[in-house]
Write a structure and sequence with these properties.
The protein is mostly helical. It has a domain at about 35-60. The chain contains 2 helices and no strands. The longest helix is centred in the last third of the chain and has 27 residues, at about 35-60. The chain starts with a helix and ends with a helix.
Length: about 60
């Protein structure tokens, strides 16, 4: 119930705000994935998972 009230309050504040001007020069209109990005993303996910396993190994053994 409290979350609903907070959400309504935030929505009201956002609706009352003036929109910020958009700088078309820095506006990203489209993206394309590449092999380099996919490799980076995959390696990063592997590193995060290995770190998670290392920090939570004690919990798994209990």
């Amino acid at each position: 119930m409290r979350n609903d009230l907070l959400l309504q309050e935030v929505d009201a504040k956002l609706a009352a705000m003036a929109p910020e001007p958009v700088d078309d020069a820095t506006f990203i209109r489209s993206v394309q994935q590449s092999d380099a990005w996919n490799t980076f993303r995959h390696d990063f996910a592997d590193e995060m998972f290995a770190e998670y396993l290392a920090t939570h190994a004690k919990l798994a053994m209990e």
